[in-house]
Amino acid sequence: MVTRGVIIAIGLASLGACALWQNGAAPEAVADCPSVTRASAWVDQMPKIGSAPSKLIVALKLDDTRPWQLTPTTSADPALLVLDLSPGGPAFPGNAGYRETASDVPRLAVSVTCAGSEVARIEKIQVVM
What we know:
The structure is a single chain. The chain has one helix and eight strands; from the N terminus they run αββββββββ. The protein is an alpha/beta fold and 129 residues long. Strand 6 and strand 7 form a beta hairpin. It is globular and about 75 Å long.
């Protein structure tokens, strides 16, 4: 019959082996940036019931099967919207989108960055009425 001490020793030895194996494993890689196959931006000024403000909408199509999200970052120029592309978010796989209330200072360009470098730039923002 196996004693309780032997069972505990076997359990602790296996936990120690797992800890050593995990510490020796390579660190998890940061998500690589996908290629942007299509980028567009527009200001939605379609008439709405009530006084809903206009929205600036940015849409990206990506060469990737994962969902991605766009997060605004600070910019010294208020006319330039800088968005950071990162994995995750509610988008459908291979897509990323962003919406904001259109400001008084119109946006003239959108810069999309990923891992610190620009991956797309939109310089023509259409106004939809």
